[in-house]
């Protein structure tokens, strides 16, 4: 998700650098807009280096060091449309007044009018300015329009006075950002091990057997888990995708490699999601040299690969394990069979022959079948949305499991 961070001219402007870092750790892509006042306190280069984006400093989208041009003149509209949230931190009394009045005399205040994204403001100023009736009214007007205001904290202020006015802690600002974006942190404390992508089973040094999995479903699961607060270990087969930031990546090529990698990291995991399309068979032998053309026909002998899910079953302990069932026919029947035959708590079943579902697309159509008998057919949605539903169901199973455990213990007592 993208956040525009408006930095305005107060001593606390330096704290915005830490804020950028922490937002990035939660996978937000941050671009910074600075007012002229802010430039007196911090150099735009600091934010450019931290974010990897140009820092907008001028009314017409000028970036530090570059004058306005035709494209930058309407940059406020482009930024307004691409962001998921506008955060102003620190917000001076002056910028609060401008936002409240709808004055648009620089890039940041124009962006506020032009965006439909949620707005979070974190004021910082002298205590008397904060308590002034004008500021109180401006804050109330912004809140009435839906802006989230992160109240400043009490403490020693840069002006030498003590009272309310110090920029709220980075933790409080982050919390408000998450609330405004409805980002949940309900997987905090969990470690999620996700497998993703296809496996490649070598025939000779240049040829291999594989399948059509792109890895997108597993990567979406990893990204969702990380954003909901989990530590994530992504065991991935060969894919063309970028590893989501903040996720620990373990690469595996064959089913054998994947089995080893899962085995090595399983002890740390509290939740396992097996989204990889693991080969069921591999060539019995890998030819050390390239197989030459010559024989009119050639037989490839295959042997079964390790069933990683079953291996996990032997070490399941209290973990919640999620398996996938990619089917081309009789979806419900096959999925129910896998649910009872495999050591899983949840099966995510999808018919890969459906339009906009399965391989190499961003959407999927799945049914979630849980061990306690619940079956939920979801409409077509993005793989990221499917990932969110999977974790909602995992958390439901965790809670019901704990309650049942509690009841059993009470019964024994
Ligand atoms: N799986 C696994 N190890 C394998 C094959 C599959 O752990 N060697 C996992 C997959 O990651 C998936 C689940 O098992 O979560 C079901 O995979 P799928 O290929 O649909 O089922 P299979 O058990 O292989 O059955 P079939 O191929 O006959 O449908």
Report on the architecture of this protein.
There is one protein chain. The chain is of the alpha/beta class. The protein has two domains: 2-181, Flavin prenyltransferase-like (Rossmann fold, 3-Layer(aba) Sandwich); 191-412, CoaB-like (Rossmann fold), CATH 3.40.50.10300. It has helices spanning 15-25, 36-39, 44-51, 70-73, 75-82, 93-101, 107-114, 127-131, 133-144, 170-180, 216-227, 255-265, 308-313, 331-341, 383-412, and strands spanning 2-7, 29-34, 85-91, 119-123, 148-149, 153-156, 162-166, 191-196, 201-204, 207-209, 231-236, 248-251, 271-274, 281-283, 302-304, 320-327, 346-351, 363-364, 366-370, 375-377, 381-382. The strands form six sheets. It has an eight-stranded mixed β-sheet, sandwiched between helices. It has a five-stranded parallel β-sheet with strand order 2-1-3-4-5, sandwiched between helices. A two-stranded antiparallel sheet has the order 6-7. A hairpin with a 2-residue loop joins strand 9 and strand 10 (207-209). The model has no long low-confidence stretch (mean pLDDT 93). The structure holds cytidine-5'-triphosphate (CTP).
């Amino acid at each position: 998700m993208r956040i525009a961070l408006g930095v305005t001219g107060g001593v606390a402007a330096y704290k915005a650098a830490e804020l950028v870092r922490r937002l990035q750790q939660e996978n937000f892509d941050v671009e910074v807009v600075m007012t002229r006042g802010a430039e007196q306190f911090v150099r735009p280069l600091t934010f450019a280096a931290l974010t990897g984006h140009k820092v907008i400093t001028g009314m017409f989208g000028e970036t530090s060091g570059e004058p306005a041009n035709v494209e930058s003149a309407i940059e406020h509209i482009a930024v307004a449309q691409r962001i998921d949230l506008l955060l102003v931190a620190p917000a001076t009394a002056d910028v609060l007044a401008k936002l409240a009045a709808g004055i648009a005399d620089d890039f940041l205040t124009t962006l506020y009018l032009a965006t439909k994204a949620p707005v979070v403001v974190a004021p910082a100023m002298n205590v008397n300015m904060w308590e002034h009736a004008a500021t109180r009214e401006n804050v109330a007007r912004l809140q009435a329009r839906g802006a989230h205001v992160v109240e400043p904290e009490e403490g020693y202020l840069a002006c030498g006075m003590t009272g309310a006015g110090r920029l709220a802690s980075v933790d409080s600002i982050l919390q408000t950002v998450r609330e405004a974006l409805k980002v949940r942190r309900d997987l905090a404390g969990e470690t999620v091990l996700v497998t993703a992508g296809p496996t490649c089973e070598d025939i000779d040094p240049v040829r291999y057997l594989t399948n059509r999995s792109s890895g997108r479903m597993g990567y979406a699961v990893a990204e969702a888990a990380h954003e909901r607060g989990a530590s994530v270990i992504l065991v991935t087969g060969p894919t063309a995708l970028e590893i989501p930031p903040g996720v620990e990546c373990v690469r595996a090529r064959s089913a054998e490699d994947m089995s080893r990698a899962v085995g090595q990291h399983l002890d740390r995991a509290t939740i396992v999601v097996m989204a990889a399309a693991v080969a069921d068979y591999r060539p019995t032998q890998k030819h050390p040299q390239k197989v030459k053309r010559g024989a009119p026909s050639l037989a490839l002998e295959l042997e079964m690969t390790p069933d990683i899910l079953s291996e996990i079953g032997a070490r399941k302990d209290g973990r919640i394990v999620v398996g996938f069932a990619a089917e081309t026919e009789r979806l419900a029947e096959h999925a129910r069979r896998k649910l009872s035959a495999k050591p899983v708590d949840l099966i995510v079943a999808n018919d890969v022959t459906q339009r906009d579902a399965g391989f190499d697309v961003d959407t999927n159509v799945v049914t979630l079948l849980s061990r306690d008998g619940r079956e939920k057919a979801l409409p077509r949605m993005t793989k990221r949305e499917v990932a969110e539903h999977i974790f909602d169901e995992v958390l439901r199973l965790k809670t019901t499991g704990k309650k049942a455990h509690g009841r059993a213990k009470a019964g024994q007592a």
